[in-house]
Amino acid sequence: MKSNYKKIGDYVRQVSNRNTDLKVMNLKGINIEKEFMPSVANINGTDLSKYKVVKKGQFAFNPMHVGRDKMLPIGLWKEEEPIIVSPAYIVFEIIDHNHLDLNYLMMWCSREEFDRNCWFTTDSSVRGGFSWDSFCDLNFPYIPLEKQKEIYHEYFVVSNRISLLERILSTVEQTSYHLYREWFVNFNFPMNFIDSNLDSKGYKHSKGQFIWDDDLESEIPFDWSSGTLEDIYSFQYGKGNNNPSNGGIYPVYGSNGIIGYYDQFNNQDAPVIGHIGSCGSLVYAFGKHYVTYNGVMCNINENYGKIFGYLTLKSKDLKSQTRGSTQPFLSYDMLYEIKTVLPPKNIESKASFYFDRIYRHINILNNQINSLNKIKDLILLNLSKI
C-alpha cells in the first residue's frame, strides 16, 4: 500500500444530534447513487424526536444491507436546511477542514473499489451490516488540501456537464413525445402534411374531417385506419437466459436497459421491451446491440419509420399490458394484440422526417454523456494511483 494512504477514522468523527425539539421534519434516505432522496418509510405514529439530524457539510450512511447490496449508501448533505435520517443511520463530519476536503472524501466514497472494501468487511449477520469502526478503519489516499480541491474541481466540471446534457436530453425526448401525441393521439398534425400547398395549422384545429372507428372505439381522421402493433412490428425474444457480458463493444440489454457488454450483437437501432423482470419497460437501443431472453426485440416494418414505431410503443403504456401474478410477463403475442391507429404513408413519412432528425440529436447527446461518464470514472479510478 502506498505510504500516503491514511485511515478515514483519523479525519472524521461521529455525531449524533437527535431531533428532540422536532424542529426538522424533512426525512431523507440515501439511494444507490449515493444521493439523498425523500424517504419512502411510513412515519405515521413514529416518534421523530429519535431521528438523527444531518446539517450542511455532514455525511450519513446506512450501515444495513451492505453485505446484501454490495455497496454502502452514503451521502454528503449540501443544502442549508438540515434534514433527519433514520436512527439506524450513522452521521459523521470532518474534524478539520484544513486537512480534508469534504467533496474529496465523498469522491473517494463513490468509487466501486470503496464499495467492494465495505462489502468485504461486513459482519456475518443475515443483513450483512457494516459498523462505524469498520468505516473508520478504511484507507484513502491523503494528499495536500489544494490538490484535493483541484482533483474535485475536475470531477465537478465533468459532473456538471453531464447533468446539463442529461437535462437537455430529457427536454428533447419530452419534446419528441409531445409532438407524437399532438400529431397521432390528438390528431392535430400540420395540414401541410396532407398537402404541401396547405398551411401548417393543425388538422383538428382546422376542423378536419373525422370518422368513427369501431375497433378503436373512437374517432380518427378521414382516410386513416386502425390496426395492431403487428402492422408496424415483428417481435421476437432475445437470446440466452444469462448475461453474456464479456467486456465486448456491444451493449447487452436485459429487461430494463444495459446490463453489460458483449463481442456479438443480434439487433441494431431498435426498441427493446422488457419481457420478464421489468416487463413492459421500454428503451431505444442505438447502434448494434445484444438482447437477452428477458427482452423483446422489435423489428420495424419497412413501411414505417423506426422512431415513429418507437414513439407508438411509448404511447401504449406497455407496463399495464402485462399478465401473470407470480411472475409477470409480456409476450410478443400479447404485443401483437395491442390496437393502434395507422396514419397514411405520406403523413407518417413527413412526421418521421422530424422524428429521425430529433433522435439523431438524442443519439449525439447520449454519446457525449457516455464519453463524459468514462472520463468521470477515470478520475475516480486514478484516485488510487495518486
From TrEMBL:
<dbReference type="Pfam" id="PF01420">
    <property type="entry name" value="Methylase_S"/>
</dbReference>
<dbReference type="InterPro" id="IPR044946">
    <property type="entry name" value="Restrct_endonuc_typeI_TRD_sf"/>
</dbReference>
<dbReference type="GO" id="GO:0009307">
    <property type="term" value="P:DNA restriction-modification system"/>
</dbReference>
<keyword id="KW-0238">DNA-binding</keyword>
<keyword id="KW-0680">Restriction system</keyword>
<dbReference type="InterPro" id="IPR052021">
    <property type="entry name" value="Type-I_RS_S_subunit"/>
</dbReference>
<dbReference type="GO" id="GO:0003677">
    <property type="term" value="F:DNA binding"/>
</dbReference>
<comment type="similarity">
    <text>Belongs to the type-I restriction system S methylase family.</text>
</comment>
<feature type="domain" description="Type I restriction modification DNA specificity">
    <location>
        <begin position="223"/>
        <end position="373"/>
    </location>
</feature>
<dbReference type="InterPro" id="IPR000055">
    <property type="entry name" value="Restrct_endonuc_typeI_TRD"/>
</dbReference>
<protein>
    <submittedName>
        <fullName>Type I restriction enzyme, S subunit</fullName>
    </submittedName>
</protein>
